[in-house]
Design a protein that fits this description.
five-stranded mixed β-sheet; single chain; alpha+beta; two-stranded antiparallel ribbon; 2 helices
Amino acid sequence: MKVTVKKKETAIPVAISTEFIKLQDALKYANLVYSGGEAKALIQEGEVKVNGEVCTMRGKKLRPGDKFEFMGNVCLICADEA
């Protein structure tokens, strides 16, 4: 009998107070990259996934409920309740 154990995905919450945030800005806001230039290059190289799919659009608008992944980090966009 083979047993497969799935690791539970824990997403880092990224709270925004606006309607949306652009993907490259979300990477910087979540402290996953040092600069906008680094974010741009990594996105265009296909290193970032949005909602499970590779995304090469650095201006992709992320809204609450969207997830993005980079280097094993999963971030969930959520509304800032302040």
